[in-house]
Amino acid sequence: MAVLIQSQSQAVSSLATINRQYVYLISAIAALGGVLFGFDLVIISGTVPFFTQFFRLDAFQTGWAVGCINLGAALGALLAGKLSDSLGRRRLLMLCAGLFALTGAGTGWAMSFPLFVGFRMLSGVAVGAAALVCPMYVAEISPATMRGRMVSFYQLSIVIGILLAYLSNYLLLNTGADNWRWMFSAQSAPSLLFFVGLFLVAESPRWLIRKGRHEEAGGVLTRIGGPDYAQAEAAQIQASFAQESREAVGDLFRKELWPIVFIGIVVAVFSQAVGQNSLFSYAPELFRQAGMGQDSAFLQSIIIGVINFLFTFVAIGTIDKLGRKKLLQYGSVLLGLDALALSAAFYWQLPGAWVLVFVLTFIAIYAATLGPVTWVALSELFPNRIRGNALALATLALWITNFFTTASFPIMKQHWGLPLTFGLHALLCFVYFLFVRLRMPETKGKSLEEIERELTRMPD
């Protein structure tokens, strides 16, 4: 069986009739979920001084207000694994788009702190579900030779959302006492665009074959790469499903699967623990602490978004050349060194210009390495038969980590100080480097079925 699949994989990779424009179109529309992901997570950075004053919050409540979206995202990740398998990738993304639109306005116009937190957590459900399904959908519909780039475009869409959030905050800064309400409400417009765009995309052929809808899957695959591609790719997918049994969540901890699942969880956790959340969610506050005025701090935040956007193209151009493992190793080491530089800058109270340089360097490194590679790795690591549950578990770990790092930052800043806080981030970066070097497999240029065979050593 392995020989047969290998020959089919070689046939697929040798085909030169891939309809790249169609793959780009599908990936671009699906990646709008990433725009909303980035926008929703970061829009709060500009609202912190205003809603904290309106609701009269202390440091603990401020951390809870900023971080609670991640608990909602964790719930969304848990639900999305099953829902993506039952409803399909496309239909679930439509539900997410509607939820994004509803909760953006709801958060913005909440009149009490509990209601604010409730809408923020509900918005997180949409974030968590979209974060799981979007890269999974793009990975499943993209040919192996394009998959790294296409899933990296999902990360690009996240950074576009982050940039739009910073820009929106800056433009709405001087709109009066309700400026923070309009900042949150701005999310509803791209949400509706995402919903409409999803009517133009096809369902994942892997999901269609799993559901026995082979004719529909063949139509999607034919449009992507022609009849020969469709036949070879469908054969690979069916062969991988033919050996599967229905996997429960508990099966993820079986001896032959747990090492793969564990790697995915560690990749997810460290992607959120290295320090970028402290910068993205509290950038204006950090710049103000470094001595910058309010308008200047908001403008510097836009520069963060621009740097994040530009350096994501570095990852897109190198991920299928250098590979996932090398980029994670380079990124973790460089981020650790930069976090040490930030720690030193705050310890010796260097001028704000130095803080800006180190912050922008950190964002550039993250955007070129860990940011996009994390989603590519998570979309590739898990076998077909457990992908939904395994991605849900890894993404759950990601959002719980995101919650603790985001919610704890105001408390650590107050009690430990910024030098020690960024020193801890540096230590975590170096630990991650060692893990990647020793345990992370390389997956570039391989079909999802080839990766599955290698990691699980499936019998012939």
TrEMBL record:
Keywords: Cell membrane, Membrane, Sugar transport, Transmembrane, Transmembrane helix, Transport
Keyword Transport belongs to the record: yes
Pfam families assigned to the protein according to its UniProt record, in alphabetical order: Sugar_tr (PF00083)
Topology class, membrane: Multi-pass membrane protein
GO cellular component, one term: plasma membrane
MF (Gene Ontology): transmembrane transporter activity
Top-level taxon of origin: Bacteria
Compartment(s) of residence: Cell membrane
Database matches in SUPFAM superfamilies: MFS general substrate transporter (SSF103473)
Main location: membrane
PROSITE patterns tied to this protein: MFS, SUGAR_TRANSPORT_1, SUGAR_TRANSPORT_2
InterPro entries named in the record: MFS_dom (IPR020846), MFS_sugar_transport-like (IPR005828), MFS_Sugar_Transporter (IPR050820), MFS_trans_sf (IPR036259), Sugar/inositol_transpt (IPR003663), Sugar_transporter_CS (IPR005829)
Domain Major facilitator superfamily (MFS) profile: 26-444
Transmembrane residue ranges: 22-44, 64-80, 92-111, 117-139, 151-172, 184-202, 257-277, 297-316, 328-348, 354-378, 390-411, 417-436
Family matches, as NCBIfam families: SP
Family to which this protein belongs: Belongs to the major facilitator superfamily. Sugar transporter (TC 2.A.1.1) family.
Protein name from the UniProt record: MFS transporter
